[in-house]
Amino acid sequence: MVLDFEFRKQVMDHHISSDLIKYCYQCSRCTDNCPVSAVSIDFYTTSGYNPRANILNALLGYKDAIFSADPLAIWGCTVCDTCDEVCPQNIELTEIFTFLKNKSTEMGKAPEFIYGQAKAIFENGKAIPSQPAIERRRQQLGLPEIPSPDVNIVQSLIKNIGADKKLK
Ligand code: SF4
Ligand code: SF4
Predict the structure, then answer these.
(1) Could you give the maximum distance between any two Cα atoms of the chain, in Å?
(2) Global confidence as pTM
(3) Is 15 a pocket residue for ligand 1 (Cβ < 6 Å)?
(4) 90 C-alpha to center of ligand 1: Å?
């Protein structure tokens, strides 16, 4: 594994509680309480989603270990925040995981469905476009029409951060 100092610095700079992440002592309480780990980790091969390992690799700057792995290694996190709650060192793990997800998207390594969902937002202004069947059902239930988002504003925002280029 290659140690990437620049990546390590980015992790440390990104973390709002950067003083805390370096105090991770690998107790594994995050992984033990993670609902995704509970259903995905194979304890014989240690494959599956493992927040403890992600924190260790991020902290040590092992970029390759994070991004050359199965995309589930990062994207498995559902941001339920349980790990943030149970970490004895008060590390905001989900903040690091969001950074890793953004990085993986930038590198074109995110799962296909992430780009698909971002494309739907770019084209429709929302992740789940309106569908006639849903609109008819709302009418039957006497619910008000859902206002249409201003797609131009959404597209400008996405273009301003350069994310539109990643959707091509
Ligand atoms: S619970 Fe906190 S201290 Fe323990 S391994 Fe996870 S991040 Fe590190
Ligand atoms: S926020 Fe992510 S890593 Fe943390 S417990 Fe929930 S699913 Fe697991």
Answers:
(1) 60
(2) 0.82
(3) no
(4) 8
